[in-house]
Amino acid sequence: MRNPIIAGNWKMHKTIAEAKAFISEIQGEIKGTDVEVVLCAPFTLLRDMKLASEGTNIKLGAQNMHFEEKGAYTGEVSVLHLKEIGIDYVIIGHSERRQYFGETDESVNRKLLKAIGHGIRPILCVGETLEEREAGSTKDKVKLQVEKAFVGVPGESAADVVVAYEPIWAIGTGRSATSSDANEVIEYIRSIVEDLYSSEVSEKVRIQYGGSVNPDNVEQIMNEADIDGALVGGASLEPSSFLELVNF
Ligand code: 13P
């Protein structure tokens, strides 16, 4: 039995005051007790959000971290910083980081290993471009991304990784994948995890869909057998809209 996980990825949005107001507006309004609710916010918001969310069932995530624990890496934030303030999750390998900030499958793997080593759960993002989809290479692309990300991850930790399948052409475009197309790729990702580990691990690992998820399509997406959650950008920014998502 996999608990659903709905995560908001706020990207480079919101102030501390807005984040605190958001938390006070949604707390107490989350209905399902089995749904895990995560807010992934810019680094400077997280400490205040942690204090504001104490005693609620809202969990917090960062949107990136460095692959070393400390050192001469000006401008970077390490897993120890996230751990110190009690962060639960970290998004790793979001397509925007791969596209604009030189994130590679190798750096994604190093970050994933570091997060796991410190008990912070990675949300590993994978997904194809429009050209790759049109060329019929979606599955080859995600297979490679998943296999490279999981190199060196021990079997007992593999199910702690949340995978987010985010087709790049569906991000921020209003053009979501159909729920059945998303489910097909996610089912395939589960089979890759089974090949890498075991059916026990693949049955446990949670796989989200991300890309133009909104209150109108979330229920259909969540009804798919292999889709365990959603990673949501735009529609996670308004408390009312985010509540509709977590209360799908
Ligand atoms: P949108 O929900 O705005 O399409 O963004 C998806 C995303 O990138 C979440 O990580």
Automatic annotation (TrEMBL):
Any one cellular-component term (Gene Ontology): cytosol
Taxonomic superkingdom: Bacteria
Catalytic activity: D-glyceraldehyde 3-phosphate = dihydroxyacetone phosphate
Entry EC number(s): 5.3.1.1
InterPro entries registered for this protein in UniProt: Aldolase_TIM, TIM_sf, TrioseP_Isoase_bac/euk, Triosephosphate_isomerase, Triosephosphate_isomerase_AS
Gene3D superfamilies: Aldolase class I
Main location: cytoplasm
Protein's name in the database: Triosephosphate isomerase
Organism in which the protein naturally occurs: Peptoclostridium acidaminophilum DSM 3953
Lineage: Bacteria, Bacillati, Bacillota, Clostridia, Peptostreptococcales
